[in-house]
Design brief:
The protein is built from seven helices and no strands. The protein is mainly alpha-helical and about 160 residues long. It folds into three domains: about 40 residues, no CATH class; about 45 residues, no CATH class; about 50 residues, no CATH class. Helix 2 packs across helix 4.
Length: about 160
């Protein structure tokens, strides 16, 4: 153990409140001691449970009291999401695989028309005194279903002719 660490009941632990600052659950052992143990090999399972319980805003005891199916699904989701890179939404196991370096490609970009409508609405208020206070409600114009069907039919006719 490093010099700054201690065994329960001996000199102060780095990062743990001093005597009288806060009561400890176990005499002489505090959260600092427990945090050190989470860094040990074999702690991956408890770390997964702790993170998942925290995500669900449940104490670990309540999380463990959930029905087994609910707990296993929650743990599986945590494991899955930990492997998805938020910058591009792809699995890290694939994105970081050097054997796949030449396999990645991209599709042509598409326009999110709802986001475009929001951006245009926000742009129209940018010179107002407090543009951040405006909220924009989105929706499709009345009769959109028939116009969409007509466009799809025209596309189908053009495809079948050519």
């Amino acid at each position: 153990m490093a010099a700054s660490r201690r065994r329960c009941g001996r000199e102060p632990v780095r990062g743990v409140p001093g005597e009288g600052e806060r009561a400890r659950t176990v005499a002489g052992c505090g959260a600092g001691f427990l945090a050190e143990q989470l860094d040990e090999p074999g702690s991956a399972g408890i770390l997964l449970e702790l993170r998942t319980a925290r995500d669900y805003r449940l104490p670990l005891s309540q999380f463990r009291a959930l029905p087994e199916t609910d707990r296993l699904l929650a743990l599986a989701l945590t494991l899955y999401e930990a492997n998805v890179d938020p910058s591009h939404g792809q699995l890290r196991s694939l994105a970081l695989d050097p054997d796949l370096a030449d396999e990645w490609t991209h599709l042509d970009p598409v326009v999110d028309h709802a986001a475009m409508a929001l951006a245009l609405a926000a742009e129209s208020k940018k010179d107002e005194k407090h543009p951040e206070v405006y909220r924009y409600a989105l929706g499709l114009r009345e009769g959109w279903e028939s116009r969409k069907a007509a466009k799809a039919a025209a596309r189908e006719a053009a495809t079948s002719e050519g």
